Amino acid sequence: MPEDIAPGPCGRCLKKSPPQAQMRSLYTYAGPVRTAILAWKLNGNDAGLEWLVRAASTKLATIFSPQDILLPVPMPISRMRKAGRHHAADLCKMICRATGSRMNYRILRRAGIQQRQSSLSRTARWNNVRKAFQVTDDYPAYPDAGSRLWIVDDIRTTGATLHYACRALKPLGQPMHAFSLARIADKE
Fold it and tell me: What distance in Å separates the CA atoms of residue 153 and residue 164, rounded to the nearest whole number?
């Protein structure tokens, strides 16, 4: 696990605080993990993803508590219709089953139209989602004391999506936490 190698904030985070209190990832997006995630995202084969979540159930229980609220990164409606599913919401449901956490998809919504992140360069990804998320006007009251809000995504490449999703939730006045199932390995 990348977070276990060098705990604490990176140099970039020390210079300018990110909008999230913490960012966690379970796996590096490579090898069998990449294969399982691509089979799930591109072919609808959930078996590998379910295995990854089950294999990490002990670790997930140290990250999430039953009081926590998981917010899937909102997916554009057009892409959701085309895919026939919402990947981040599906991942949230699996994590909730494993940890007893709860999911809420009503607090954060997608705003505007953006290109697919996977087709863009690093800089373009950051510009693409800069204003992509908004707190809904009718979001429910913040949950009980002791619960944390987690933005959940499947793959963290540049961190732009999780960064701007957390930033959009600042009006709630609560610390935001970000989680991805896998992340791209840092370049040496």
Answer: 12
